Every structure is written in structure tokens, then in C-alpha cells.
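Deliverable D5.2: sample structural annotation.
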Amino acid sequence: MQFVKLFLAFSIIGLFAFGGGYSALSIMEDLIVKRFNFLTISDFWKIVGIAQITPGPIALNIATFVGAQMGKIPGAIVATFSVIIFPTLLSFFLIILYKKTSKNGIIKGVFESFQNMIPVLIVLSCISLFLNLVVDIKSLLILVLAFLLIFLFPKFSILLKIIISGFISVLLYLFVFK
């Protein structure tokens, strides 16, 4: 029964994850945490953090990790397969459909509406992430400092910004937030 739930949850994520993994985070959170109760909200966002630093698409990484948590190796295989099979088939179908009807105004309108939805989904994911990660003044201060570092020094290497943000966070926790 657990494998059926994994298949269903990640098939839905795969089918409705328009715009990539980040725009689908709110959908993933809803299904993984609220509907199927695979993880707590805290564990979900920890997995999102891990999925961001591991190679590969974020939805695929999350599916593999959650599947492994729920059903070991078979669970990881089911969840990983589920999240990629329907988007792959849908992509083939849409390519064929688009080639045959690319001049059709209705089809163009559908694709344009999908493009307009993506920023909204990303904003919803950011709001959810903010509400779940900022739990006290310490985390808010570190978040603000990280954003300032990113936006005040746009020419610095992103790797250098990550290292500096981590170093500042450790210093704040060791010496300021005792």
C-alpha cells in the first residue's frame, strides 16, 4: 500500500510540476507533508536543502530520498520512476502536438498561460519556505544577512557567497546567540 501511495504522490508531482522543481515545491509540500503524511514539514524542508546541493533535478532528488525513507531501495525506485514517467510521456505528446498545431491561437494561449503561472508558483514556494524556516530572530537575522550578501555584492562568486554566509552563520551562533 505504501508503494501505491508513493506512486500516486510522485506521479501527481511529475504531472503538475510545470516550470521545474522550484515552482513545484508548494505542490510537493502539500502532497508529501499534508496529504500523504510521508514527512513532517521540518523534515521536508531539510530534504529540500539536501536536494539542492546534490546533483540532478530537485524533484527527482526529493522523490528518491522520500522513497528511500518510506520503502528503502524499492521505495526509492518507485518514487523516482513515478516522478519522471508521466512528464516524459507528456513531453513527447506535447512536442508532437505543438509541431502539428503551432499556428493555432488556442494552443499558443495555453502555453503562454503556463508560462505566466510559473512565477506565481515560485513565489508561493518562497513564501512557504520563509514561513517554515524563519522560526526565531536568529534565523531571520541570518536570512537577512545572506540576502544582503547576495544582493550587495553581485560580482562576487556564488561559491564565495555561500562560504561567507556559512562562516557568518557559525560565528553568529557561537558568539552572538549563546
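Annotation notes: Residues 2-133 form one domain. The radius of gyration is 19 Å.
The annotation will be released with the project's public dataset once the embargo ends.
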